[in-house]
Amino acid sequence: MRAALKRTFVNWKDYAIAAGIALLLLALWELSARSAWINPLIFPPPSRIAASLVDLAHYDLFDNVAVSLKRFLSGVVLGSIPGILAGLLIGWSPRVRRIIDPFIAAIHPLPKIVLFPL
User: Fold this and answer.
1) Separation of alpha carbons 99 and 90, rounded Å
2) At what angle do helices 46-58 and 12-34 cross, to 10 degrees?
3) What is the per-residue pLDDT across 37-48, written as a single tens digit (0 to 9) for each?
4) Are 104 and 89 in contact (CB under 8 A)?
5) Which DSSP string corresponds to 40-75?
6) How many helices (H) and strands (E) does the chain have?
7) CA of 19: how far to CAs of 12, 23, 30, 45, in Å?
């Protein structure tokens, strides 16, 4: 029992090692981009990325995120309501299921990425 409890608790040393590895990789990335070992146009240094993020946050980042979030949530609601209603109707009525099932069966083999832009 004690061994099972010991396994469930996370060791803080593991988090420290993971954070150290992440910092080491960021430092290596910064050094590589600054010394032009890698193309800084393709992989800009993390310090430049952070500075750009701060600049964006000072201007209109939050407004743009709010607009995108509003559009996303509107799409989720507008898509969920008809989908839930159709699912309930199909589940309650065998006749509706027989009518709609061929359309669902025709759409099912399509890759989901094809439907994503819709």
Assistant:
1) 9
2) 100
3) 999 889 999 999
4) no
5) TTTS--HHHHHHHHHHHHHTTHHHHHHHHHHHHHHH
6) 6, 0
7) 11, 6, 16, 19
Determine contact, residues 56/67, Cβ cutoff 8 Å: no
Whole-angstrom distance, CA of residue 117 vs CA of residue 39: 33
pLDDT at 7: 59
- Cα–Cα distance, 93 to 97 (Å, whole number): 6
How far apart are the C-alpha atoms of 30 and 44, rounded to whole Å?
8
Whole-prediction pTM: 0.48
What CA–CA distance (Å, rounded) separates 104 from 102?
5
* For residues 6-14, average pLDDT: 69
10: alpha, beta or left, given left = phi > 0 and alpha = psi -120 to 50? beta
The residue whose two tokens read 């910092």 is: 23
**Tokens, residue 43:** 């992989």
What's the burial of 33, exposed, middle or buried (CB within 10 Å: 0-12/13-18/19+)? buried
